[in-house]
User: Fold these one by one.
Assistant:
Number 1:
Amino acid sequence: KSGDDHETSVATKTRPKTQRPPLYKVLLLNDDYTPMEFVVHVLERYFGMSHSQAFEIMLTVHKKGLAVVGVFSFEVAETKVAQVMDFSRRHQHPLQCTMEKE
Ligand code: TYC
């Protein structure tokens, strides 16, 4: 019969799994030859960092060996890595930039 919905049914909230795209960390690696100023310039140019932010991250890489410089979708991360690698090679610096799934 109608009208006893509130007595007989159990309230159930379904929470459909929201699909989020995987994210990728872009990592900058230390080396002994790339000038510090060049790394700072790369971080400003390709990762939109301020000069002081870029300097700070550059020093972290220099001291710790590597640092995450950003987290992006696969396509954006791939593009950033390619841009940094190309720019570094054009300036004949051995700077390495890689990506890994978060
Ligand atoms: N270690 C380099 C130097 O002493 C500086 C450097 C920093 C290089 C960060 C790469 O990702 C890097 N000139």
Number 2:
Amino acid sequence: MAYGGYSYIDKNYRPKKTDFVTILWVKGESTFEMLSEALAAESSVGTWTKLATMNDFVWKKLRAHVFKTIKVSANSGYVYIAYPYDHFDSRNLLQILASIRGNIYGMKEIQELKILDWVMPEKFQKQFPGPKIGIKEIRKIIGTKSRPHVGTIVKPKVGLSAKEWADVAQKAFMGGLDMVKDDENLVNQTFCPWEERVIRTIEAADKAKDELGEGKIYVSNITDSIPKMIERIEFLDEHGWKQCMIDVYVMGIAGTEEILRELHKRKFLVHAHRAGHGAETRGPWGVGFNFWEKIYRLLGVSQLHTGTGVGKMEGSPLFIQKYGEIASKQKIKGFEPLFLNFKWAKNIKPMMPVASGGLHPGLVEGVTAIYGKDVTIMAGGGIHGHPKGTLYGAKAQRAAAEDVNKGIKLNKTQNIYLQEAIKKWGYVSGIEIKKRITSIKKLPIKKIAKGGLEALDKLN
Ligand code: CAP
Ligand code: MG
């Protein structure tokens, strides 16, 4: 089998430690073998026809190798591709993306294409900063050892004035929440000017810190053009507030890297919201969320939204657990063909995973069954929709985190505000969630994979 005159399938090839590796799901009009060849060719050195300009150096040193395949049907399956280190411009993520996540998505014989996971070699990772303010440093700011962190997104998403917004934040802090954040679509609208909101909320956070003796986090959304973001970072820094939030997915890689350079220089805690990722991480096209997640940790955000497994957004507990591991562990055990074995370079510190979306106090135990205790649990509706309002919603959520930390089941809680929240929204037991994860892990994944991506998606 050959594509454009060359064959890239080489089942005897063993990826080197310095290779980049991707695993893709593909379905198309050609044979599976031809699709595999086409993917490797178009994402590395080849094209549709034989070239008079091809030489030994290009072919032997730079081409991609399809070193493993799992055939599902005559024209679909999983393809493992290894790329030699020197194929890429050594520290240029955009160039890498233009190769491995580039033209292949536009090839007309392809009907479904998804990069399920990828591995970047240690040598490559070492060139990046990773989180400067990671889990350890965030815990130091708040003053916790092991309990999960809890926070809120002020709701309604947009519409409150700066004063109204900061008043809600104040109640949330005083109720015991560790963190308050802007929503992904709130920046500097006329009804809620960014600067005024920031000044008022910093005051609220400082006041709560003094009164309660606990560190507080307020991340304001600075997402905008690069010069505007820099202005906002300077403003925050001048006000002694080294925390902010960015919408990483819509900012793109170059924008994110550029802003992180500035934020790292100033030692900021950086909260990363992932609004928009679903446009390409769901369904049979695009990339898995873990693909982007690895880039965000490499570039060095402090905390990243990674899903809930029990709330309103998609993602099964098993997938969310894996995203949690990619965020906070150094070594990740594969679950092929969905997740590959992966190791972070030593210099890439753990980042804090953030669970958000449809959460409420009764789900805190379920979330920690997925992530463990190194997680920040955010709730908007689940705080401000409490029967007694924000202050008591915050108390209920904090009580849930304290109970979970002590190993108390939330349906046995003594806290009356938590009891009220559970009465309104219900409770999901951690044991149930753990059982679900264990049962999925026991499934014959390789056999299920033979049913195609659709069958694997059912695990999500
Ligand atoms: C949560 C949230 C988050 C989503 C994003 C919202 O609010 O603020 O943006 O969770 O999803 O606006 O929906 P609620 P993800 O607590 O009121 O649901 O974290 O999965 O990217
Ligand atoms: Mg939001």
